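To close the chapter, one final illustration. This time we ask the reader to focus less on the individual chains and more on the assembly as a whole: which components sit near each other, and how the overall shape emerges from the parts.
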Amino acid sequence: KAGVTQTPRYLIKTRGQQVTLSCSPISGHRSVSWYQQTPGQGLQFLFEYFSETQRNKGNFPGRFSGRQFSNSRSEMNVSTLELGDSALYLCASSLAAVTDTQYFGPGTRLTVL
Amino acid sequence: AQSVTQLGSHVSVSEGALVLLRCNYSSSVPPYLFWYVQYPNQGLQLLLKYTSAATLVKGINGFEAEFKKSETSFHLTKPSAHMSDAAEYFCAVRINTGNQFYFGTGTSLTVIP
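The assembled structure is written out below.
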């Protein structure tokens, strides 16, 4: 089975721009979660989607949004980029239940100048 | 509230020595506990998970962890460190309600030849 894929792997944007990141889960996985990883804050949960519905949300401003499509692929959007949004954005997929293992993609490295 | 504390942001061991990475959790309900490893420029890979079955959990690459409810701990061990074990290790907790992961801040393991 192919693993979780994320595109693009690297992005450079300037302040004020917006960005869309994409995540394709493992085939058959219906849950997709997004995380922001920074050296100072570690791994922080952004949100989780299950069957096209946002099932859970972390403590991030409304500039961070996401969606999931019927094929379970997910996108994350960040509007009005700030310097502090520079981070590694990780996507993880799992089957459905809480005890299911989350499988992580390689991440998208976003740099905001 | 749920949280995860990893004691020691950096741990150094000699090749062949015991690896011990500490993780304590805080949860008001029985948790599901996970250890992940992250190699440079890669996503997270599951090492092992505890989901209320056996308290001693064996994972990949010779790692194991023991769930101790009385100590609210889930420390990760490996009897003999290998150079390839050098990486960042994350402990995570997930509870049935809320359905999101809470990650520790990570422990960077260095293996000295």
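The interface with chain B takes residues 4, 33, 35, 42-45, 48, 55-56, 58, 90, 92, 98-99, 101-107 of chain A (CB under 8 Å). The first strand of chain A starts at residue 5 and ends at 7. With these observations in hand, you are ready for the problems at the end of the chapter.
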